[in-house]
């Protein structure tokens, strides 16, 4: 690809970042005037790095300079992308979670924009991530059986109010893990409403979400042992359900 076409792809990436993410390029290095950083306005984290490098620097044959774009993405996706033309191990970045895209026309521009958006999501502040994602995310939520009897609560109603979690959306799913002495996931719930108060006269600032019970599990179905086999060694705070555990959960819910 000629220099003019490469420059066009680079400029189109910068234009898309400015229009969609309000991110203007920052040129931070005097000795590398072509290197441009794109970062979030709210947390100042990088979500992309554009550079112009000799092909040999990237392990390619030839001396001509080529434009590249570094973006962050899921580790498993990095491994898959490296098997395709136009993708290289991340230059000057963490090679487990970043990847280099050649801006020479090998990779379709629509796919470049898709990976740029994934990088923007991966590096965004929590509030921005929540605004960008769709409902339906699965979470692990800890509960203490010594403090609150969930079994009794769900025996009288299939819905209850729970202290609201900032990362959760209406339509998300909660797998409630009961701490010791139970040490197992016992309840599968869906978030129905947000921004509720326990009672109209409540004035202590507590904001709740309404959750609906969808299924109870037996303690032997999802004990801590099974969670550990899926790389979940403890559930002390709200956390995402990892893909390995999601496979187990999906099988149980069929």
What is the helix/strand order? HEEEHEEHHEHEEEEHEH
Strand order of the largest sheet: 7-10-9-8-6-11
Helical content stands at 25-40%
Mean pLDDT: 90
Task: Report strand %.
Answer: 25-35%
Main β-sheet: number of strands, strand sense, barrel status? 6 strands, mixed
State the helix count: 7
Radius of gyration: 23 Å
Q: What is the number of beta strands?
A: 11
Overall morphology: elongated
SSE layout and pairing:
Blueprint (H helix, E strand, L loop, with lengths): L2 H19 L14 E4 L6 E9 L10 E8 L2 H7 L5 E3 L8 E5 L6 H15 L2 H7 L5 E6 L6 H7 L2 E5 L9 E6 L5 E13 L11 E9 L7 H6 L9 E2 L2 H11 L1
Parallel strand pairs: 6-8
Antiparallel strand pairs: 1-2, 2-3, 3-5, 4-5, 6-11, 7-10, 8-9, 9-10
Helix pairs in contact: 1-3
Structure write-up:
The chain contains seven helices and eleven strands. Strand 8 and strand 9 form a beta hairpin. The strands form two sheets. It has a six-stranded mixed beta sheet with strand order 7-10-9-8-6-11, with no helix packed on it. The mean pLDDT is 90. The chain is an alpha+beta fold and 254 residues long.
Identify the notable features of this structure and list them briefly.
254 residues, 28% strand, six-stranded mixed β-sheet, 11 strands, elongated, alpha+beta, five-stranded antiparallel β-sheet
Q: What is the structure about, briefly put?
A:
With 254 residues, the protein is an alpha+beta fold.
